[in-house]
Amino acid sequence: MKRLTAIICVLILIAASLGGCASSADNSKSLKIVATILPVYDWVKNITSGAKGCELSLLIDSGVDMHSFQPSAQDIVNISSCDVFVYVGGESDQWVDDALKDKVNKDMTVINLMDLLKDRLKNEELKEGMQGEADQAPDEHIWLSLKNAQESCKAICVQLAKLDKKNAKTYQSNCDSYNDKLEKLDNEYVKAVSAAKQKTLVVADRFPFRYLTDDYGLDYYAAFSGCSAETEASFKTIVFLAKKVDELKLTSIFKTDGSDGKVAETVIENTKDKNARVLTLDSMQSADSKSGSYLAAMRSNLETLKTAFKE
């Protein structure tokens, strides 16, 4: 953090010399928006589609996992001078306070989504068989809930409309249209889960999907919590998950995107039949999601779950 603060102090004059971005009162200039991660960026992209004078950029766009991200010098400049900064607000965003401490644009609107969703937040939990220690911090993976996505989009839309009245109707129309798509997909999840005979998942990996499972009444067992830094599962964890696969007669277990799947393969090797297959759920924790958009990624996750439900 000291290094980050030093970088900010060095760059503050540089950023100031760039003149910053347009203020909300100056309709002749663009509204510069920075979003930290792919899901949030995609929400804002859909809300601002067709709006004149909006410049949207994705901060973590190099495939770096959000849990290990630290802003570069250029990132600090971009953040410090933007008009709207949208971020999740969880443990992985602890660098944000220092990055904003000496911001050039003193009129910047900062949108912390976890603050906006405070009534919907859930703490990380240490489930039976999960490796690690209990952490009562709020689970930051809020985007893995279509319901949270809808609430977030509404809140973002309200803030943008206040700042940029000339595009307010466009923002609202786009938000309504996009939320209709989110609600439709949400209903598809409800239908798929209600038809499933087996509603328990075994995830031989980190588990960032608590909001997703809670939304639809799914149960789960996992190797690690969502923000765990651990990647090597103990023999006890492997055996526990393997026994759950046998007890529940599961033919599929899950890993997250970006995982090498070694823990999942080891779990399968310790089951009786050793023939379960590994399916991948997209956590969208880095910008290299193969799905390309938030809706596509959530639809892909639905199709993956339906594959497991049918077996």
Describe the structure.
- The protein has 311 residues and is α/β, with parallel strands linked by helices.
- It has 2 domains: 2-117 and 136-184, Nitrogenase molybdenum iron protein domain (Rossmann fold); 197-310, Nitrogenase molybdenum iron protein domain (Rossmann fold), CATH 3.40.50.1980.
- It contains 11 helices and 8 strands.
- It has helices at 2-17, 38-48, 73-81, 96-101, 113-116, 146-163, 168-195, 210-215, 235-248, 262-269, 294-310, and strands at residues 31-35, 54-58, 84-87, 109-112, 200-207, 219-225, 252-256, 277-281.
- The protein has a 4-stranded parallel sheet with strand order 2-1-3-4, sandwiched between helices.
- The model is unreliable at 1-27 (pLDDT under 50).
Structural class: alpha/beta
Which descriptor suits the 3D outline? globular
The share of residues in helices is 40-55%
CATH class of the largest domain: Alpha Beta
Short account of what is shown:
The protein has helices at about 1-15, 40-50, 75-80, 95-100, 115, 145-165, 170-195, 210-215, 235-250, 260-270, 295-310; strands at about 30-35, 55-60, 85, 110, 200-205, 220-225, 250-255, 275-280. By secondary structure, it is of the alpha/beta class. The chain has two domains: about 1-115 and about 135-185, Nitrogenase molybdenum iron protein domain (Rossmann fold); about 195-310, Rossmann fold, CATH 3.40.50.1980.
